[in-house]
Each structure stands twice: as structure tokens, then as C-alpha cells.
Design a protein that fits this description.
Blueprint lengths: L16 H18 L6 E5 L2 E4 L2 E4 L2 E5 L2 E5 L3 E4 L6 E13 L4 E10 L8 E8 L40 H13 L5 H12 L5 H12 L8 H17 L1 E3 L10 E3 L1
Antiparallel strand pairs: 1-4, 2-3, 3-6, 4-5, 7-8, 7-9, 10-11
Helix pairs in contact: 2-3, 4-5
Length: 257
């Protein structure tokens, strides 16, 4: 049955191990239960900022292989212009057991290997030209895909129910631009409002929106495909020019409303 135990610390009573274990386990049990159905990825926080030649990862929570990891304070690491794709990732270490604690550690690192190992989680990537400055301020939704000198969060894994999902920050940009364009399509209005209202959009919702809105066959789109198709929808609304769904063997057609 469902129960809740609170230790009673009273004068004259013996402090028992079970009472301390209750204080230790309750917060962790709550977090584990609350996020038990979430996938690997960012749970909260873990935003990226730039200060001069230093990259800052803000404090937050991530999940990897069923375990929650907490970054209690902002983490800073230097970055350098290489002109090549550089991936900011978390590399999770093995379990370390000592006399007082069992520790599951991790390392935040920059790597030029784009493919992730099973014990790695991507936070972002960039290509920085020599003499240029790295930036995390975006002009619009399309700017997230800028190839050089810009932190790209499109490939970032954000935790969702059962599957990782698209970064909410990118969806917020999409939603604001969409609503400012005064869309008439019910799909566009509903989806944009949900992007702004929800903490995170589940991946399946985004997949269904894209496929139904563009008349495409439903499938699980990659993050890169999501950004491309959402950008296409946004362009159609802003320009008033609708592109018909593309079928193999048939040319694309432009339909002017």
C-alpha cells in the first residue's frame, strides 16, 4: 500500500539508522519515481552560455541509463577555434565504491568525434573559425542551424517520455515566430501555443504535427529533420506560399494561396 514515513526527532530518544536512511532516501526516491519513464537526456537546466573564451554549462539535471546526475553549480571550460565540428558532451564514468559513498561520476568535455558512445550525451556542437567569436544568441528559428561560430543545440538530447525530444528553447523560437505571423491553420495555432505552454513537447507530438501538416507519411524524424520541416512550415506561413507534399517520381509544385 501507499505509505509516507516521517522520522520523529525528539529529545531523549535514540537516533536510529532507519531515521537517517529515511532522510537520505526520500528526495532521491521522489526524483527517481517522478522521472522513471523519461529517456536519457536533459531533465532541467544545463543551458549553454559563452563568456569570452570560456563555455559555461549551467547547473541542472540529466538522466543517463536510468540514473539521474546533478550538476550543482555552473561548469566552465575553455574552447578554441579549430574550424572543425566540435561536440560538447558529457561522458559518464564507471561506478566508484568507497567506504562512505558510491559515486557515479561524469566529465564535461569537448570532442571532435561526432558519433556518441553509449556512455555519452550531447549538449551541443559548433564550428568556430579562427578570429571569430562563439555566440549563443539567436536571431530567429533558422539561425539555430547556422554552420559557423554558433552553438548548435539541434542535436542535443532533451529527455522526454520514453524517447528524447527536441530542445524546448528551439521550439519556443518557432512558436513565437509562428504566432507573430498570424497563422490561420488550426494545426499551426494549436501546436505553437502548446510549444509555449508546455515544459517540453513529446517527440511523438512533433512527429504527428509535421507529418499531418505537410502531408507526409508518419515516421520518427531525426532532430535535424524536425528543424528542417518546422522551418519549411514557418516559411510557408510567413510567405503565404504553400509547397505541396513531395511524392517520389513527381515534381514539386508551388501552390499560391
Amino acid at each position: 500500500m501507499f505509505t509516507t514515513h516521517f522520522p520523529n526527532f525528539q529529545k531523549g530518544r535514540i537516533l536510529k539508522r532507519e531515521m537517517l536512511e529515511n532522510l537520505r532516501d526520500l528526495p532521491r526516491d521522489f526524483l527517481d519515481l517522478y522521472f522513471q519513464e523519461y529517456s536519457n537526456g536533459i531533465i532541467a537546466g544545463v543551458n549553454l552560455q559563452v563568456n569570452g573564451t570560456t563555455l559555461i554549462v549551467t547547473k541542472g539535471i540529466v538522466k543517463q541509463n536510468g540514473r539521474l546526475y546533478i550538476l550543482h553549480s555552473d561548469y566552465e571550460l575553455p574552447y578554441f577555434p579549430t574550424g572543425k565540428e566540435t561536440v560538447l558532451k558529457i561522458k559518464f564514468g564507471e561506478e566508484l565504491t568507497g567506504p562512505d559513498f558510491t559515486t557515479f561520476s561524469s566529465e564535461i568535455m569537448l570532442d571532435n568525434i561526432e558519433e556518441l558512445a553509449e556512455n555519452e550525451l550531447e549538449l551541443g556542437r559548433f564550428k568556430l573559425k579562427p578570429g571569430a567569436k562563439l555566440r549563443t544568441d539567436y536571431i530567429d528559428f533558422a539561425d539555430f542551424a547556422t554552420e559557423f561560430n554558433t552553438i548548435n543545440s539541434i542535436h542535443c538530447q532533451y529527455a522526454g517520455l520514453y524517447k528524447s525530444t527536441f530542445h524546448p528553447m528551439i521550439l519556443h523560437y518557432f512558436a513565437r515566430e509562428m504566432l507573430k505571423s498570424k497563422p490561420s491553420n488550426a494545426y499551426d495555432i494549436s501546436f505553437a501555443l502548446e510549444c509555449l505552454n508546455q515544459e517540453r513537447m513529446q517527440r511523438e507530438v512533433i512527429d504527428y504535427y509535421i507529418s499531418n501538416r505537410l502531408g507526409l507519411e508518419y515516421k520518427e524524424y531525426t532532430n535535424l529533420e524536425m528543424h528542417k520541416y518546422l522551418g519549411r512550415i514557418l516559411l510557408e506561413v510567413q510567405s503565404g506560399v504553400r509547397m505541396a507534399a513531395h511524392n517520389p517520381g513527381r515534381p514539386k509544385r508551388l501552390i499560391v494561396d
